[in-house]
Amino acid sequence: MDAIADIHASNAARIEQLGGIIRQYTDLTDKLQHSHAQLQQTVQSLRSELSEKNRQLERRKRLAALGEMAAGMAHEIRNPLGGIELYASMLARDVAQQPGPLQLVNKISAGVKRLESLVSHVLQFSREIEPQFAQCDLADLVEQAGELAGERLHCGIECRLRGPRPMPVRVDPLLIGQAILNLLINAIEAVGEAGAIEMAWAPQSPDGGFRFSIRDSGPGIPPDVLDRIFNPFFTTKESGTGLGLAIVHRIVEAHDGTITACNAPQGGAIFEFRI
């Protein structure tokens, strides 16, 4: 009887040991399945990130080629423009007492100035951007942009600022200030005579990263042009050059940042860049 009891006890111990092995195997299998699922998500995320980086790289190559071509054309156009402007000013003096001819000459001068402005924008867009990084206060840059755009801000436009003060960042203050000003002017033109604009900023990471956004109460961006909004020379405005937002895009990219544009659910457009 003792031998039989020993056999039963031994079998029970083996069964218990086998059960433990099965439980460990099951736990290990569950962990492997969980790890596999996480790995798949990571791979998918990396593939999406790589695809986006490749798209950005191709865009930069196209813009670089376009910039070189535009710079060459701008220089060729600027030379004769100087001559036209000189002759127009001389002609204006000669017909100063003749209202009809003087009006025509003034139209020529206005056209030349507009072309000169376009050439300047093209040269600015095509120029290599090399940020001169310095420690500065982002809140100050936003306020300075508001002051520079002061003449464009109508009394019917409410402009709100929201963000920490001070907020130290390390950027090129001139370039980031220009980017903020360009976005603000774009928002002012979208709002028109009355509406609201909000500029907001906040830290994004412990290493000094931040985000800046500007929201307007205008009509928003037509869905069919959202993917072209930062393309050079693309504009929906009759008097626009199509280079303002393209220059902003280049400035943000030069800081290794990203910029996006979308329509707010409650109406209006939102532009945001992260650096």
Write out the strand line-up for the largest beta sheet, numbering strands in chain order: 2-4-5-7-6
CATH superfamily of the largest domain: Histidine kinase-like ATPase, C-terminal domain
Mean pLDDT: 83
The tally of domains stands at: 2
Helix content: 55-70%
- The chain-level structural class is alpha+beta
The counted number of beta strands is: 7
User: Counting H and I runs of at least 4 residues, what is the number of helices?
Assistant: 5
CATH topology of the largest domain: Heat Shock Protein 90
What composes the largest sheet?
A: 5 strands, mixed
Which band does the percent of strand residues land in?
Answer: 15-25%
Order of helices and strands: HHEHEEHEEHEE
Shape, please?
A: elongated
